[in-house]
Amino acid sequence: MHQGAAPILFALAQQLRKNETLAEKILWKHLSNKKLGVKFRRQHPLHLFIVDFYCHDW
Question: Nearest-CA neighbor of 28 among 44, 12, 10?
Answer without folding.
Answer: 44
